[in-house]
Structures are given as structure tokens and as C-alpha cells.
Amino acid sequence: MMEQKWKQVLIAPDSSIRDALKIIDQASLRIALVVSEAQQLLGVVTDGDIRRGLLKNFSLDSPVSAVMNNHPVTAQNGTSRRELIKLMNEKGLLSIPLLENGKVVDLEILQRNSPEFRHDNPVFLMAGGFGTRLKPLTNDCPKPMLKVGDKPILELVLLSFIRSGFHNFYISLHYMPEQIQQYFGDGSKWNVSIKYIYEDLPLGTAGALGLLPPDAPKLPVLLMNGDLLTTVDFEQLLEFHNKSRSDATMCVRDYEYQIPFGVINGDGERVLSMVEKPIQRLFVNAGIYVINPEVRAQVKPNQRIDMPTLLEQNIELTKKVSMFPIHEYWLDIGRIDDYQRAQIDVHNLRLPA
Asked: pLDDT digit string (tens) for 284-336?
């Protein structure tokens, strides 16, 4: 690898998680290498390491050393590329630091244009809603077809998945389906496959899963509301789901609110502590999911069910339902002021063209 390229992903252990995110994102190598002043490798940080740290209540301002992998897979400099690719495939890695006497001297990576980065997983985009809160804009136009910048919302969603290597798309339709189908067609304009699922009656946020055709790939399906604007890397979401060996994964957002009063903690009549206007931190549903085929199969044709209900049923069955925390931009375009905000935000986001 070109020297200046791998050196861009070096980071000191006392740097913030936020700094590591910038490196992972800007260098496009999907990893940051934590090194000492003498360039000795101390650990590595990936997107998954950071998200697991966020679930443990670390903040983006916490030191990167708090979430780094202290025992990464490495190789000696001079190891053949064939051996390195074999090792990466065996370990499910995208890159391996190359060392000499413990010091980082290079970084071997799998190329993003290789077959490993083409994902056959079905992507299910929910686009059948009425968009009632966006009236009068949706009187003659389905909400996913409203333009943000110069493209419909649904096209921006589609392009984000395509950029992450996905090509098998299913779109659920109900309200003004002709407009969506006429615009997107069979997907050949984007060199992908698009098939349509028609809901005669609204089936909820999970019900359309029961209408997926039998020939849909028996792989985890990525499901997303078609009115979300986000810069989430869906490939990283799928990787997180697979490595966690989850039955289902729900994307969640950090939500904070301040209680406007002093909160008293006590034991009987005795005051133990007082906290003035504390800030509560919660995770809330972001409307993006990964669902294994076994969970998908639980939804029967034309069954009305929402995704939270489906996930709660699987939690009761002791299935593993995981959280994938989103630190990227996310906006639910549900109201007029959200739509107006999206028109401003889209110019500052790195969205696919």
C-alpha cells in the first residue's frame, strides 16, 4: 500500500473516539491503528469496536484506547499477499497491519471492488405509507417520491445501499404505487434488480415481509423505512449483524433529554443524593433493521404486524436481538419542518450522486 495512505490511519491512544471515526471515514480503509510515539502497534479500532463502545456508554469524546482491540490479528512484513488474503478470509477481516519488531510498516487490505464486497442480501424498502403529516405535499405524490435536493428521497436511499454493495431490492407499495414503479422500473438504470411488493391493505412495518417471494435470497434481509435520510454505511451494519451472530438487529439512535427539576434519590425518609436537572440518555428505534430468514419466516402472508412486535416476540423466545447504534446523520422526514430541514442538510451531506 502507498506509504502516505496507511500513515493516514495512525492515531495516538489518547485521541478521541470522534477522531478515530474521522480517520476511518476519511481514509476509506475502515480501520484506525493506535500506535505509540515510536509507532509500536497498541491496538486497532474498527467501526464495530466504536459502536460496541457506544453501547457501553462511552461517548465520542472518550479516548480511543477505551474501545480499541488490544489483540488484533497482525502479520510480519514480507508475508505474501496470497497468505494475507487467506488469513483475512479465514478471520473475516478487511485489513491486516504489517509489523517489523512490533512497529507498523504497512497495512494490507481487501479491495472494495473484489467479489467479497458484493452482497446478495435482499434489501426491503418500505414505501407504502400515506405521508399524512406531509399534506398537502403528498396529496398528489407519495412521500418517498418527494424530492430532497434534485432526487426523490427513495432514490437517495437506494443509492446509499448500492454504494455499500447491495443489488437485490424489494420495494413495498400501497399509496400511489404507479408513480414509484414508473420511476424506478426494474432497477436496470442503476444496474440492480428491483421487485415490488403490493399491500392491498397496510400491513404495518413488518407485515410486508410475509409477501416476499419464495425466490428471495435466504440471507439476512435489510429492512428500512423509505422516508429516512441517513449516511449510515449499510455494509458495516450487515457486518455488525453477522459478527454478533444475531437473529435480528435494530438500528438505534442516542436520545438525550434534560429533566427540568432536581432529582432526589432516597431510602425511606432519608435523602441519599440530589442531582440538579440530570440528563437522561436513551436509545430509540431508528427504523432500520437486519432480520434473519428464520425470523422473516414467522410473518405469514397478509399478516398485520409491526416490527417492534415481531422483535418483542423473538426476545420472548430468547432469540438474540441486537442494537446497532447510529452515530451518523439520520433524519425521519415525517413532517413539513423535517422536509424543509432535509432540503438544507442535503447540501452538507456526503450522499451518493
From this structure: 889 999 999 999 999 999 899 999 999 999 999 999 999 999 988 898 888 88
C-alpha cell read off for 321: 436481538
Torsion of CA 65, 68, 72, 77, to 10 degrees: -60
Residue 252 dihedral angles phi and psi, to the nearest 5°: -130, 155
Name the pTM for this structure.
0.78
Q: Which of 217, 213, 130, 207 is nearest to 174 (CA)?
A: 130
| Type and span of the H or E element at 283 | strand 279-291
SS3 string, 25-44, reads HHHCCCCEEEECCCCEEEEE
Tell me: the pLDDT tens digits for 130-188?
Answer: 777 888 888 888 889 888 888 899 999 999 999 888 999 999 998 888 999 999 999 99
What nine digits make up the cell of 265? 434519590
Q: 25-65: per-residue pLDDT in tens? A: 776 678 899 999 888 999 999 888 898 898 888 888 899 99
Amino acid identity, position 27: A
Contact 148, 342 (CB under 8 A): yes
Q: Give the SS3 label for residue 323.
A: strand
Q: Are 85 and 24 in contact (CB under 8 A)?
A: no
